[in-house]
């Protein structure tokens, strides 16, 4: 029998699970909150939209701090601790800062987060405060924040835990490993939102590595989606003033631009754009039809799937793909992080009398 302290699969975290594929040593202290091992959910209603192809949603919103960032952060913070770091630092549109704050707290080191003022979703900002980070808001956007962080990092006082830190990418590639392990092979298409380009780079590295090891027979086409008014990779130029309701991907000069481009071209994939309206429609559709509530940036992957199915303008059309195709969409962050758009749409709840009749009437029976 296992001892009471033996860890279940769920509690192990990605370093213990995938140590052989990660840049870690046996003596490294592991800073983990049980990240990874997230559900790959088969979605029948989404599948119907693609003529019966199988569509799966990789739900990264159920990670410890509610986003995929935790996969990279467990590796980045463990390695920082091994090297004796006392402080970590990041720029963020919200999720990286939430994750960095939590893992720093867990490691017993300090964390400073540099954020674009007024542009961080409520839940994410709240997380940084809850975990005790030093929060600095700047007059500027994410690209300005990352510039400042890069300069500050040169002093050597901090370890930068943005995805320019290769340990972050190494951790995030484990999501691709999990998909292959669970499906028995790689999917044919992988759709995901793109901001800084780190995650698409990480998935592609993961798919390539497992393929090279003979764990999968094929490689997926990587299809990334940017918000229409924050789409530097799509337009192939820096966007000085990116704007989108999907604040997580409000980025005009992605740090992993080249790597993201390489992932797209090597995989014979595509980069495309979706509008804010399409993003909000997809967010609501996914919650109501599949029971999965994601933040707007994550819904860009679902809006993108709809575009591939229906629009003649899509960079990649699903109209002629074989019916045996398997499609994975990564949804990157939990819907509760960014409640503002939904709160605005909520009707004012008016209390009714506490009687069965009044409640029946209010339900509409
Ligand atoms: N989805 C969510 C929910 C994100 O928070 C991010 C990035 C992305 C997608 C895009 O991933 O940058 O690797 O291409 N968020 C970063 C942050 C920028 O600071 O939290 P990417």
Account of the protein in words:
Helix 9 (198-212) crosses helix 11 and helix 12 (276-290) crosses helix 13. This protein has helices at 9-18, 44-49, 69-82, 95-107, 122-130, 142-153, 166-172, 174-183, 198-212, 232-235, 257-266, 276-290, 296-310, 340-345, 356-363; strands spanning 40-42, 54-59, 87-91, 110-116, 134-138, 159-160, 189-193, 221-227, 270-274, 326-331. The model has no long low-confidence stretch (mean pLDDT 95). The relative contact order is 0.14. With 365 residues, the protein is an alpha/beta fold. 42% of the residues lie in helices and 14% in strands. It is globular. The chain has a 6-stranded mixed β-sheet, sandwiched between helices. A 4-stranded parallel β-sheet has the order 5-4-3-6, sandwiched between helices. The protein is built from 15 helices and 10 strands. Ligand F0G binds at residues 67, 69, 92-96, 163, 193-199, 248-249, 295, 297-298, 332-333. The site of ligand F0G has 22 residues, from helix 4, helix 9 and helix 13.
Topology:
Layout: H1 9-18, E1 40-42, H2 44-49, E2 54-59, H3 69-82, E3 87-91, H4 95-107, E4 110-116, H5 122-130, E5 134-138, H6 142-153, E6 159-160, H7 166-172, H8 174-183, E7 189-193, H9 198-212, E8 221-227, H10 232-235, H11 257-266, E9 270-274, H12 276-290, H13 296-310, E10 326-331, H14 340-345, H15 356-363
Parallel strand pairs: 2-10, 3-4, 3-6, 4-5, 7-8, 7-10, 8-9
Antiparallel strand pairs: 1-2
Helix pairs in contact: 3-4, 3-7, 4-5, 7-9, 8-9, 9-11, 12-13
The structure holds ligand F0G.
């Amino acid at each position: 029998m296992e001892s009471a302290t033996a860890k279940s699969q769920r509690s192990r975290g990605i370093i213990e699970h995938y140590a052989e594929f990660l840049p870690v040593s046996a003596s490294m202290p592991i800073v983990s909150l049980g990240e990874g091992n997230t559900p790959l959910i088969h979605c029948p209603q989404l599948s119907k939209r693609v003529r019966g192809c199988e569509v799966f949603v990789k739900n990264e919103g159920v990670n410890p701090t509610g986003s995929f960032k935790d996969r990279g952060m467990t590796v980045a913070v463990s390695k920082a601790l091994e090297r004796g770091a006392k402080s970590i630092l990041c720029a963020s549109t919200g999720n990286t800062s939430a994750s960095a704050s939590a893992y720093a707290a867990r490691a017993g080191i300090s964390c400073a987060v540099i954020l674009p003022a007024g542009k961080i979703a409520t839940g994410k900002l709240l997380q940084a405060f809850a975990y005790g980070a030093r929060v600095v808001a700047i007059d500027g956007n994410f690209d300005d924040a990352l510039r400042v962080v890069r300069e500050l990092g040169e002093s050597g006082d901090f370890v930068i835990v943005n995805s320019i830190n290769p340990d972050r990418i190494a951790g995030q590639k484990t999501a691709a490993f999990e998909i292959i392990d669970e499906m028995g092979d790689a999917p044919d298409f992988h759709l995901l939102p793109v901001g800084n380009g780190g995650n698409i780079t990480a998935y592609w590295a993961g798919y390539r590595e497992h393929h090279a090891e003979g764990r999968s027979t094929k490689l997926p086409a990587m299809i990334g989606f940017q918000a229409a008014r924050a789409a530097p990779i799509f337009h192939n130029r820096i966007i000085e003033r990116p704007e989108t309701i999907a604040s997580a991907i409000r980025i005009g000069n992605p740090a992993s631009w080249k790597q993201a481009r390489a992932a797209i071209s090597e995989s014979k994939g595509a980069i495309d754009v979706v509008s804010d309206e399409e993003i909000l429609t997809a967010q609501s559709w996914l919650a109501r039809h599949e029971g999965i509530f994601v933040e707007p940036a994550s819904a860009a992957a679902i809006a993108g799937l709809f575009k591939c199915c229906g629009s003649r303008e899509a960079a990649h059309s699903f109209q002629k793909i074989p019916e045996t195709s398997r499609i994975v969409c990564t949804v990157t962050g939990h819907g509760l992080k960014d409640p503002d758009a939904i709160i605005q749409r909520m009707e004012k709840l008016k209390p009714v009398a506490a009687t069965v009749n009044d409640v029946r009437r209010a339900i509409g029976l």
